[in-house]
Amino acid sequence: MVQENRITMTPNSNGHKMSFDLKVKHVAKPTLVKPAQETQKGLYLLSNLDQNIAVIVRTIYCFKSENMSNDMAADVLKEALAKVLVHYYPLAGRLTISPQGKLIVECNGEGAVFVEAEADCNMDDIGDSTKPDPVTLGKLVYDIPSAKNILEIPPLVAQVTKFKCGGFALGLGMNHCMFDGIGAMEFVNSWGETARNLPLTTPPYLDRTILNSRDPPRIEFNHQEFDEIDDISGTKELYNEKMEYRSFCFDPTLLEKLKLKVMSDATLEKCTSFEALSGFVWRARTKALKMKPDQQTKLLFAVDGRPKFSPPLPKGYFGNGIVLTNAVCPAGELIENPLSSSVKLVQQSVKMVTDDYMRSAIDYFETTRARPSLSSTLLITTWSRLGFHTTDFGWGEPVVSGPVALPEKEVILFLSHGKERRSVNVLLGMPVSAMKTFEDLMNDI
């Protein structure tokens, strides 16, 4: 049985409201934290892999120590931020548009936005902050009220919120075009090391020209990730319903049971937990949304290209080293065929990602300026291997850490869970009418 955790939104399908209303007040005006030393000025290149994901990713980290109060938390984090920005100076700049029509960073040392706040409650009162909840957890991350577009939002915004219990939360709004999950994790951990007066374990490698497009560009693969699929099933209208957000926990025993189910027809010799879970949720979501049999449905997921490039990207690469791979299948086939069939499609998508494929994707954007389409698509993003839980600013590792909200309705997030990080939380939002079916399918293992 999948352990199911429900996030009650305001209001939810049953008309209930959240029993807890987090009140946060900003105790001072937002300030700009500039690099502690003079840093390089001028334009800083963003690669083609950075261009299509200029969205703000909001995360929180909650800390509480029996030995240290939260009195100095904001001061310690602010001072350390100024120091670490010397190494990560593009984060102190501002986004602009290059003459070629691409996003680029103007390194002007203007600084990251830093906000101090206080909550009217204890940290435990906010409930289970391991699951996305934009209503409550969103109050722990500062939004730029005057920003009209992504160019007017600084690449890094930080809010430190003190709780009455002596704990505090660090809420971050970071632009995905600056780095992927691995790069973001390395930055936050470097910030923590700086706060503890330690040298950086992984200094950033800043040169993104190693991912420049080829001259002339060579498109050598059929990049279906960019294809627009006709929505003949009315899924877009379905998503106009009220949304319900839930989390389903797969512990190691359940993951093993799922893998055995995938391989029970002897079609596949082996599969990973990610492959089994991806095939399973893609199939279940397609069925829950009642897609028509001839509806093409697409699966997108990010693959870490760092070790797959030739040569591999340097350690500490500051940027996006991920590439989207895909599988496309008629909904009828996906649902009627055995589970092993959908998992095999996932495996083929993983194998597709080679140096040649990634260079072709980079060149495809150079030629077309296309964006991946999410029509009739499921986008799976995996945080289960990211070590955000190891961040330490001097108060020990976070009690909890995770995302504030899912970036798009088509996104399902895999997040590591439990003390040994061996369980996986599957986080998603679905229209109310589809969630019950999805829940039933999740429990059918």
From TrEMBL:
EC main group: transferase
Keywords of the record: Acyltransferase, Flavonoid biosynthesis, Transferase
Catalysed reaction, written as an equation: anthranilate + benzoyl-CoA = N-benzoylanthranilate + CoA
Single GO molecular function: anthranilate N-benzoyltransferase activity
Known EC number: 2.3.1.144
GO BP: flavonoid biosynthetic process
Name of the protein described by the UniProt record: anthranilate N-benzoyltransferase
Origin species: Saponaria officinalis
